[in-house]
């Protein structure tokens, strides 16, 4: 089992920045990649970014050039640096973990709210 705990959400003005953190604990060795998904009110949950155990990155087109995913293996923590935030980035952001061999994440954090508004 793997536990994921997010932190770092909040309220920010358009054009501002936030950094989300996700601390993983438990059987980390079974995780192939970690990432971030988000869900805005009335919309489907969507992938934001992922990073594999080998460091390969994947981003949604809507956040490329603005968001950066990274990981600190010593701390078992994944980060999402969000710059040039837009109102449409407002959502609950979830940290995820996907096991080797699985097609989709099986581990989810509790979610952290990000609100971009003036």
Number of strands: 11
Q: In whole angstroms, how far apart are the ends? A: 40 Å
Question: Structural class of the secondary elements?
Answer: mainly beta
Mean pLDDT: 96
How much of the sequence lies in strands comes to: over 45%
Instruction: Specify Rg, calculated over alpha carbons.
Output: 13 Å
Instruction: List the secondary-structure elements in sequence, H or E.
Output: EEEEEEEEEEE
Low-confidence segments, given as residue ranges, are: none
Percent of residues in helices comes to under 10%
State the major sheet: 7 strands, mixed
Supply the number of helical segments: 0
Principal-axis shape equals: globular
Give structural notes.
- With 118 residues, this protein is mostly beta strands.
- It contains no helices and eleven strands.
- It has strands at residues 2-7, 10-12, 18-26, 31-39, 46-52, 57-59, 67-72, 77-82, 91-99, 107-108, 112-116.
- Strands 2, 4, 5, 6, 9, 10 and 11 form a seven-stranded mixed β-sheet that branches. Strands 1-3-8-7 form a four-stranded antiparallel β-sheet, with no helix packed on it.
For this entry, give a set of tags.
118 residues, mainly beta, seven-stranded mixed β-sheet, four-stranded antiparallel β-sheet, 11 strands, 0% helix, 55% strand, globular
Task: Compile the SSE list and pairings.
Elements: E1 2-7, E2 10-12, E3 18-26, E4 31-39, E5 46-52, E6 57-59, E7 67-72, E8 77-82, E9 91-99, E10 107-108, E11 112-116
Parallel strand pairs: 2-11
Antiparallel strand pairs: 1-3, 3-8, 4-5, 4-9, 5-6, 7-8, 9-10, 9-11
């Amino acid at each position: 089992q793997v536990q994921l705990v997010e932190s770092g959400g909040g309220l920010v003005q358009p054009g501002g920045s936030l950094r989300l953190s996700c601390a993983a604990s438990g059987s980390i060795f079974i995780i192939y990649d970690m990432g971030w998904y988000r869900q805005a009110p009335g919309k489907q949950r969507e992938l934001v970014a992922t990073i594999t155990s080998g460091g390969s990155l994947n981003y949604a087109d809507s956040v490329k050039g603005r968001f950066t995913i990274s990981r600190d293996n010593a701390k078992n923590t994944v980060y999402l640096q969000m710059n040039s935030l837009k109102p449409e980035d407002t959502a609950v952001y979830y940290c995820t973990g996907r096991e080797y061999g699985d097609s989709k994440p099986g581990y989810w954090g509790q979610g952290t709210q990000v609100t971009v508004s003036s």
